[in-house]
Amino acid sequence: MKVAIITGGSNGIGKSTVVELAKRGVGIILTYNNYQDRAESLVEAIQSDYGIRAVALKLDLTNRASFASFENDVRKLLREVWETDEFNYLVNNGGVGGPMMLDDLTEDYFDKILNTNFKGSVFLSQRLLRFMKEGGAMVNTSSSSKSQSFPGYSIYGSLKAALSVWTRYIAKELAPRGIRVNAVSPGPTHTNFGDGAFDQHPELIKMLADQSVFGRLGKPDDIGKVIANLLSDDFGWVTAQDIEVSGGHLL
Ligand SMILES: NC(=O)c1ccc[n+]([C@@H]2O[C@H](COP(=O)([O-])OP(=O)(O)OC[C@H]3O[C@@H](n4cnc5c(N)ncnc54)[C@H](OP(=O)(O)O)[C@@H]3O)[C@@H](O)[C@H]2O)c1
After folding, report:
1. Which of 47, 56, 184, 206 is the most buried (most CB within 10 A)?
2. Which residue minimizes the CA distance to atom 27 of ligand 1?
3. Could you read off the pLDDT of 160-211 as tens digits, one per residue?
4. From ligand 1's centre to the CA of 193, what distance in Å?
5. What is the predicted pLDDT for the residue at 128?
6. Catalytic residue list contains 156
7. Does ligand 1 have an atom closer than 6 angstroms to the CB of 132?
8. May I ask the CATH architecture of the domain 3-245?
9. pTM > 0.90
């Protein structure tokens, strides 16, 4: 059985990815940060709906000191639950957002976005990729904001651009092991992102939907299906790509 590790798998795009992978028979290690309850209910649903073993682990991407014990927990789980020392897929999806204009910019905000959305994923991947099985695959959740210029998103967009560029470099470094590395760049997607910004400001939904050729925001499943497919052997000849999954936002 193949096993996937999905960061930020407790909610939104990560949750959809977890479900899509489980439907395809992939064993699941998902991570949560604040909402253990959401993660545990997802684990139960996966097991009862698809008969797939899933385990939820706490991970805070800003806390790199915790990565060694996270790695130990993953290695232990792989042995005890799946009787293997290796895993097959990694989805670097956990992230935070929210706008801040340059004039208001603080180092705390900058460091939070940096450490969660880029630096955390890089150093976690460094550890985990050492025991990814030959022929495995990794997908990084970037953002269409990396090639746009909405006021307030300069740091978020710049650091997603960094994640996309890193994807291409690492694809080359991992190719000798037969590992593929790609990114998806979702457009505006109706999740809890930015502390529920879409639900708190419904006017945002209309504005962004009007900018899409299909007249709506993305749903988590619009993205999760693409991530699950990109990981699969159907995309076995695709690496170093960054696919915008935005339903033609700002086309
Ligand atoms: N929604 C959009 O419009 C959109 C567009 C482009 C790209 N994206 C990207 O898509 C990814 C998923 O976001 P989403 O829209 O699905 O948002 P979401 O529903 O808020 O989910 C975010 C996930 O990331 C986890 N997370 C938050 N802070 C973390 C930390 N410090 N360490 C580890 N995990 C952390 C959350 O865990 P807890 O909930 O347990 O705290 C949750 O599982 C993000 O990388 C985001 O940048 C989203």
Report:
1. 184
2. 95
3. 999 999 999 999 999 999 999 999 999 999 999 888 888 898 999 999 999 9
4. 6
5. 98
6. yes
7. no
8. 3-Layer(aba) Sandwich (3.40)
9. yes
Integer Cα distance of 14 and 123 in angstroms: 19
Atom of ligand 1 nearest to the CA of 10: 43
Q: Where does residue 248 fall: left (phi above 0), alpha (psi -120 to 50 degrees), or beta otherwise?
A: left
Would you say how long the chain is, in residues? 251
Ligand 1: atom nearest CA of 188 is: 3
Q: Which of 89, 109, 156, 169 is catalytic?
A: 156
Whether ligand 1 lies within 6 angstroms of the CB of 13 is answered as yes
Taking residue 179's Cβ as centre, other Cβ atoms within 10 Å add up to 22
Q: Which amino acid is at 8?
A: G
Q: Is the Cβ atom of 116 under 6 angstroms away from ligand 1?
A: yes
Q: How far is the CA of 130 from the centre of ligand 1 (A)?
A: 25
**Cα-based angle 70, 112, 148 (whole degrees, multiple of 5):** 115
Instruction: Give the pLDDT confidence of 9-54 residue by residue, as tens digits.
Output: 999 999 999 999 999 999 999 999 999 999 999 999 999 999 999 9
Q: What is the pLDDT of residues 236-250, one digit of tens each?
A: 999 999 999 999 999
Domain boundaries, the chain: 3-245
